[in-house]
Amino acid sequence: MSDDGRIETRCIHGGQQHEPTTGAVMQPVFQTSTYAQPWPAKHTGYEYARTQNPTREALERCIASLEGATEAVCFGSGLAATSTVIQALGSGAKVVCGDDLYGGTYRVFTRVFAKFGVEFSFVDLANADLEEAIPEDTDLVWLESPTNPLLKITDIRKVAERAKQVGATLAVDNTFATPVFQRPLELGADLVVHSTTKYLNGHSDVVGGVVATADPAWAEQLRFLQNAVGAVPGPWDTWLTLRGLKTLAVRMERHQANARRVVEWLENNPKVTRIHYPFREEDPGYAIASSQMSGFGGMVSFVLDCTLEQAEKFCASTKVFTLAESLGGVESLLELPASMTHASVPPEIREELGLADGLIRLSCGIEHADDLIADLEQALAAALQ
Ligand code: P1T
């Protein structure tokens, strides 16, 4: 098992070992629901596949290695991972959330867990006075940085400090940055959450999620809930994600390079009225992003000076960028958050947050940057003609 080395090495070898019977270099797919026991209640360490599966465990060890965690616990989707963290809290718990979250996260908090007596408040953690925003009785602080879809940056070290002061757990959804560019546990967070559907798997062929931690009490609780509630991923999905992870570091470099080229193109386009991309000096998140991230990845959001119909036409006119929800795959995607991923956020709250109807979100893939730019150019000409 190798946990040594830099992040590029750990993407491939982190927590991995050759299969002991044959020496197979790649972890096999253990496609089984149960395991033979030599004697009642005596087993090999594997009883039933909701509880243990070696393929899933190989993926969990690799993600733990990448995030600097002692334990990573995988789930059937990013939202299942998110839900498990809230299930650990129980009724009456107080959760302070960032105000710009994936729409599905907002929906499960406000429409599912609120019914069980968990209290959620939403504040702009990127700009708030943290003493006011995170009161003494807070149990959990939940944030995305960068956020989906506005790419706002929150100072994770500062929020972690305040969370510790009040005895709250800090959970960071690290889906957009990935451990290649940001490791929240090193910045003071207690839990790191991912939709592994996105960059970690990277090929738009699996839905999955994970929570990673170095806190023994949280590790035990997450493991208990993974088995007790049972929102586990299947063996093929974990195997595909483990395979995808091996190229994560290389992919992230190319996603980032392409996003930078696209941002340059946007900057020189008079029809673009706003660009959200924290690695530009004029972005409000630039200083903090530079201090807590080593790179950025492929996400870019922008607003076009056009009507909603024209924005829709733009999204429907691209040929290399596919109009689709999701992000983080090798292929470029684009979407309109107001009508797609964030339609579950009420319109008045969307307006308050600056989620304009004409906001377009790009997930720059790893194709050639010139082809991406030519595609955006022809779509813009088609939409605004
Ligand atoms: O889709 P799922 O694997 O359940 O993950 C939910 C999720 C959690 N956190 C973040 C930051 C996310 O972006 C997502 C899913 N997001 C999309 C599907 C999207 O298009 O934004």
Question: Key features?
Answer:
binds ligand P1T; Aspartate Aminotransferase, domain 2; 12 strands; 385 residues; 7-stranded mixed β-sheet; 14 helices; globular
Question: Could you walk me through the main structural features you see in this protein, from its secondary elements to its overall organization?
Answer:
- It is a single chain.
- This protein is α/β, with parallel strands linked by helices.
- It has two domains: 7-245, Type I PLP-dependent aspartate aminotransferase-like (Major domain) (Aspartate Aminotransferase, domain 2, 3-Layer(aba) Sandwich); 248-384, Aspartate Aminotransferase, domain 1 (Alpha-Beta Complex), CATH 3.90.1150.
- 37% of the residues lie in helices and 15% in strands.
- It is built from 14 helices and twelve strands.
- It has helices spanning 7-13, 54-67, 78-87, 103-111, 130-133, 156-166, 178-181, 216-229, 235-245, 248-267, 286-292, 308-317, 347-353, 369-384, and strands at residues 71-75, 94-98, 119-123, 140-144, 169-173, 191-195, 209-213, 272-276, 299-304, 322-323, 333-335, 359-363.
- The protein has a seven-stranded mixed sheet with strand order 1-7-6-5-4-2-3, with helices on both faces. Strands 8-9-12-11-10 form a five-stranded mixed sheet, with helices on one face.
- Helix 1 (7-13) runs antiparallel to helix 2, helix 3 (78-87) packs parallel to helix 4 (103-111) and helix 12 (308-317) crosses helix 14.
- The longest helix is centred in the last third of the chain and has 20 residues, at 248-267.
- The radius of gyration is 21 Å and the shape is globular.
- The protein binds ligand P1T.
- Residues 77-79, 102, 104-105, 144, 148, 173, 175, 195, 197, 207, 209, 325-327, 341 line the site of ligand P1T.
